[in-house]
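note to self — DONT lose this again. spent like an hour looking for the file last time. sequence + predicted structure for the chain T wanted, 158 res
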Amino acid sequence: MMPIVVKLPNGNIVDPIAKAFKRFHYGEAESIHYFYHFFTSSNSRQNITPDNISYPPGKFEFLICGEIELSPEQFTRLMMPVSFQVKQVERNELVYFQADGDEFSYSCEPPGIQMTFNDECTYQKARKIADEVVHNLTIAGFSAELIVLDNSKIYKFE
């Protein structure tokens, strides 16, 4: 499915067609009413900025959901933030990415791509990295949505 991305007057970028498909596929959890209310309200952008939401270091993870299947070349190009120097490191047969003193990794599992950061990384820095990755995916034509996970809770995805 090719995303149809719309930039709203308040600055939010949304994919309304993908939202409708998600509603059909996942059911009531994907509220279309909430989607349009949230993304069309004039102050909604303020509600999702990293400055207004915060988690202590080590208490969050991110999940990137959407129709995302990447070749190794696409992964290298799209899954790296642009405003940080990122270095790939292999340790214990796992791949990690270092960005200005902090470290993150990816795990591809249904229902998406999980981003995990080291326990010392601040939420603001991690959110900036995750937002840049989602932006890279979106402009490359993928339907990507970032979900913040409080890692003190247990989540069930069906």
